[in-house]
Specification:
Length: about 375
C-alpha cells in the first residue's frame, strides 16, 4: 500500500439517515471493509462528514480580475482549511487547471469565465458581449468548463439607474439550448426580480444569489427544479453597496436595501416551496475564501433545518454536482468534527481532521 491505512471511527454520516460506526481509507479510497492484517493503521475519531462543498466561489479571481498562481493557491488552501474540499468555481478569468494536478488542494468544478453584457459587470471579470453573440460564447465556455456555464443575468443599468435584465428572452433560449446540447448546465448571477422569469422559462438550471425571488417566481423555480445558491455571507454586504451607489443611483440603493431586508424570508420561502438550495460563499471577489461554515450557519438563520443546511454543503451538494460522498471506493475526502454537526452547525467552524485524497491534512 502506498499510504498508511486510516481508520475513522465514531459516527460516520454517510447520509442524513445513514450513520455508521467506522470506515477505512485504503490507498486513498473509502472502504467499509477492514483491511487484512499487517497494514499500518492510523486512527481518527469523531463525527465524519463528506468534504464540504462551496458551490459558488471564484478561485483565481479577486476584486480586480485574474490573480497569479500563488494567490490562487492561497485561496484554495483557505477553502481546504475550512473543510471545503469540493468547489464549484462560478466564473473566473484565470486558468486554474493546474490545480487539478495537486492532490493536496480541493477538487474544482469550473463554470468557465463569466459571460456578461457589454459594460454591465465588474471590470476584467467577464467576456463582455452583445445578445447576438451569446449562444456562441456559451457553447465555447461549455466546452472549456466542467459541465457549467455562468451568465450575468442582471446588473445595474445606468440609464435606468437600477438593476435590470441583461439579455432578451430569445437570446437566452438560444444560449440554454447551446449549453444543453454540449451537456452543460447554466447558472446566472441575479440580484433583482425582473430577470428571473425569462431565465427560468428559457431553461436555466440554477440561479446565484436569487435575492429577487417573490411569491410569483418561487413556484416557478420549484416546478422547474431550478436550484438557488443564496450566498448569504455576500448578501450581508448589500447595505454597503447601496451606500456606495446612492448618490448617483438612489433607486438602485433602495432596491439593494430592500433585497437585503427580506433575504432570510426569501430563502425560507424558497425552501418551504421545495426549491433546491445549496451552499456558496461568493469568495474570491471581495470576500475571502474559507467561509463555508459561516454560510451554512446563515442558511440555518434563514430558516433551513440544520440537517437540510448540512445537506446543502455535503450529501445534497455533492449529488447535485455529480461528485461522490462517503461511498465505497470513492476518493477519501472527508472532514471530522469533535461533536455532532446535526445538533449544532457551529461545529463546522472547528474541523478536527481533514482528509483529502486519503491523506490527512494539517489543521
Amino acid at each position: 500500500m502506498d499510504q498508511p491505512v486510516l481508520h475513522v471511527s465514531g459516527r460516520i454520516l454517510v447520509g442524513p439517515e445513514d450513520v455508521r460506526d467506522e470506515l477505512w481509507v485504503i490507498d486513498g479510497r473509502i472502504s467499509f471493509t477492514a483491511p487484512g492484517t499487517g497494514a499500518e493503521v492510523q486512527s481518527v475519531r469523531g463525527w465524519a462528514l463528506p468534504g464540504l462543498t462551496d458551490a459558488h466561489c471564484h478561485v483565481g479571481l479577486d476584486a480586480h480580475g485574474a490573480v497569479d498562481e500563488a494567490t490562487s493557491e492561497k485561496q484554495a488552501l483557505a477553502d481546504r482549511e475550512a473543510g471545503a474540499l469540493l468547489l464549484r468555481d462560478a466564473g473566473s478569468a484565470a486558468d486554474t487547471r493546474w490545480l487539478d494536478e495537486r492532490e493536496d488542494l480541493p477538487k474544482v468544478v469550473r463554470a468557465g469565465r463569466h459571460i456578461a453584457r457589454t459594460r454591465r459587470y465588474i471590470r476584467n471579470y467577464a467576456h463582455e458581449i452583445e445578445p447576438d453573440e451569446l449562444a456562441a460564447y456559451v457553447r465555447t465556455e461549455a466546452r472549456r468548463g466542467d459541465g457549467w456555464v455562468k451568465l450575468v443575468g442582471d446588473w445595474i443599468d445606468r440609464d435606468r439607474g437600477d438593476l435590470a435584465p441583461c439579455w432578451p428572452r430569445e437570446a437566452l433560449e438560444q444560449a440554454m439550448a447551446a449549453a444543453h446540447a454540449e451537456g452543460a448546465r447554466v447558472t446566472a448571477h441575479v440580484f433583482g426580480e425582473d430577470a428571473l422569469r425569462d431565465l427560468v422559462e428559457a431553461g436555466i438550471d440554477c440561479v446565484e444569489h436569487a435575492t429577487g425571488l417573490t411569491e410569483d417566481t418561487i413556484p416557478l423555480f420549484a416546478e422547474r427544479g431550478v436550484a438557488i445558491v443564496p450566498t448569504l455571507v455576500n448578501i450581508a454586504h448589500f447595505p454597503e453597496h447601496a451606500a456606495a451607489g446612492e448618490a448617483k443611483f438612489p433607486a438602485y440603493a433602495g432596491t439593494m436595501r430592500a433585497l437585503h431586508g427580506r433575504r432570510y424570508a426569501t430563502v425560507a420561502a424558497a425552501y418551504e416551496a421545495g426549491v433546491p438550495i445549496f451552499t456558496g460563499t461568493d469568495a474570491g471577489g471581495s470576500l475571502p475564501h474559507g467561509l463555508v461554515a459561516q454560510e451554512v450557519a446563515e442558511l440555518v438563520r434563514a430558516g433551513l433545518p440544520r440537517v437540510a443546511a448540512l445537506s446543502a454543503t455535503t450529501w445534497g451538494a455533492r449529488s447535485w454536482l455529480g461528485r461522490p460522498g462517503l461511498d465505497e471506493g470513492a476518493p477519501a475526502d472527508l472532514v471530522v468534527y469533535a461533536q455532532d454537526p446535526r445538533e449544532d452547525v457551529g461545529v463546522l467552524l472547528d474541523p478536527q481532521a481533514i482528509i483529502l485524497n486519503g491523506r490527512q491534512m494539517t489543521v
